[in-house]
Write a structure and sequence with these properties.
2 domains, 6-stranded antiparallel beta barrel, 7 helices, 29% helix
């Protein structure tokens, strides 16, 4: 199982340890790193891709709102889930956190079940998006064990894609394993998505067909990094 990297950033050592224990106890796929201030946090996040960040709103040297605003504007990191933690109960702070794109807001002191529930909702979020299909403009490629195909993308979701390819001497076969690559019109790209062919359909209902509609289902146990990048790709075409 691929490990999820989680950054726990809080100025209180006991709280960092509490969060570390709670997450590693309830989520065996998680490995945690910690920070006690905002010093060099942005550089650290750019050099180490985290799958989840828990960050103190009042963090010294770089407060949570500033980090969150920077993160959501960062081209390659903007999809990173972030939970803000704060002892403040001001309604305006909560509203601003939502406006800036926080995935959750935890009020201190919080109990373990509250923390675990928030994290579980974020970790399982891609599963709820599997059936959300979107019209997708762009190109895709498929690589089998013996051949490469390319075509125009029609639809894309977290669990697969469909599009049109030109016929070749040998067409891909149903349930044949492939590696898919996608490039959207907004120039966002993703390569190496493992999947299988689940559908082939002639576009023209005539004997001399030139184009085939192909459907690909991504495998369910994609590496977590690929799932994260796929979610970012899907988000980029709907924003």
């Amino acid at each position: 199982m691929n490990k999820m990297k989680v950054l726990i950033a809080d100025s209180t050592a006991s709280l960092r340890q509490f969060i570390k224990y709670a997450l590693e106890s309830h989520f065996p796929q998680m490995t945690t790193e910690m920070a006690n201030s905002g010093k060099n946090i942005q550089q650290r996040m750019e050099s180490t891709r985290y799958d989840l960040v828990l960050y103190e709103k009042e963090m010294p040297l770089l407060d949570g709102f500033t980090l969150l605003e920077w993160l959501r504007r960062h081209e390659s990191l903007k999809a990173t889930p972030l939970i803000l933690m704060s002892a403040g109960t001001e309604e305006e702070s909560l509203k601003r956190a939502v406006q800036l794109g926080a995935d959750a807001y935890l009020l201190k002191p919080f109990k373990m079940d509250g923390l675990v529930g928030k994290v579980a909702a974020i970790v399982n979020r891609p599963l709820r998006r599997k059936m959300e299909r979107h019209r997708a403009d762009g190109a895709f490629s498929l690589r089998t064990s013996s051949q490469n195909f390319s075509g125009s993308l029609q639809e894309m979701a977290f669990d697969g894609l469909s599009g049109i390819i030109e016929t070749q001497e040998r067409l891909p076969q149903i349930l044949e394993k492939v590696e898919a690559g996608v490039e959207l019109q907004n120039r966002q790209r993703l390569e190496g998505i493992a999947g299988v062919i689940t559908g082939l359909e002639a576009v023209e209902a005539i004997p001399d067909i030139k184009h085939i509609r192909v459907a690909v289902k991504f495998i369910s146990d994609l590496p977590f990094e690929t799932k994260r990048d796929l979610e970012a790709l899907l988000s980029s075409q709907t924003t």
